[in-house]
From TrEMBL:
Gene3D superfamilies tied to this protein: 3.40.50.450, Phosphofructokinase domain
UniProt-annotated binding residues for ADP: R21, A22, A23, V24, R25, R155, G186, A187, E188, R212, K214, T215, S216
Residues annotated for ATP binding in this entry: G11, R72, S73, G102, D103, G104, T105
Annotated source species: Marivirga tractuosa (strain ATCC 23168 / DSM 4126 / NBRC 15989 / NCIMB 1408 / VKM B-1430 / H-43) (Microscilla tractuosa)
Keywords, in A-Z order: Allosteric enzyme, ATP-binding, Cytoplasm, Glycolysis, Kinase, Magnesium, Metal-binding, Nucleotide-binding, Transferase
Keyword Magnesium in record: yes
Protein's name according to its UniProt entry: ATP-dependent 6-phosphofructokinase
Amino acid sequence: MKKVAIMTSGGDAPGMNACLRAAVRGAVYHGVEIYGIYRGYDGMIEGDIVKMDSHSVSNIIQKGGTILKSARSEEFKTKEGRKKAYNELQKLGIEGLITIGGDGTFTGAKIFYDEYGIPTVGAPGTIDNDLFGTDYTIGFDTAVNTALGAIDKIRDTADSHNRLFFIEVMGRDSGYIAIRSGIGGGAELVMVPETSTSIKEVISTLQEGWARHKTSSIVVVAEGDEEGNAMEIAEKVKKQISQKDIKVSILGHIQRGGSPSAQDRILASRLGLGALEGLMKGEKNVMAGIINDKLVYTSFEDSITKNKPLNQELIHMVKVLSV
Ligand code: F6P
């Protein structure tokens, strides 16, 4: 394999740049030509593709976001869009692809591989940590630390005013950020899409805490919780305990930015190089991941369809540690 292309796609994640850098430097080291595709699949369709070298990725390991930019492409979901994308890659003689992104990115990559057979290896880049086939995804650790920093600050003011806060963190379908930042921030309760916690249970847990003379209370809510988002949950709780001063804080996209943590830079570097070297060794239609500190490849199919369950021990721990 002598010519490959690389892109970042879907929601950005801190560490995507470090991943890109590792793949590009790996390609240079192995004498493979590498092209960067701007704006994910949209850029592939439009031929927004440039040749990269070692200098193209200088001084980016510490930067959040993605220098290649990212997009959630609607056009790539169509047959015509994918045909255009294939033609653009053909013009440059691209023989392999590296896609850095999450489940949407890999769903697209799988369909594209099935239709055109260009060998593709993915690197899991999403703050959600919701991909099967890797213990952690690129950006997750940084996002948890960002959320934790915010929770600590909210705890200060919650404590001063004896308030109850509902803090919403990201995670459309997954509670990974919520559970980790909740444990780290000493939350009284964590609400995640993977387990159901009724409003009745929320109220009784909080009231038990107040009976034990707890002053401030923090409930961390994953945005995809089945009871609704933090605002909706707070409204439901307010209706039943009107005497308590209740506030809501939505952390939002601050969780997606910022300089990647040491853990994310190293993970991203391993996965970027792992994706490139995997491609060179003949891996295709797979995602590179790290499980138990070992580099592994999992089919796109499994990475997007298989469930990566939340650790039940962590869910139990929230209950025990908030007494
Ligand atoms: O998939 C990552 C993620 O940050 C989710 O946690 C969140 O629901 C979604 O992306 C938000 O996407 P967008 O930035 O496109 O609104």
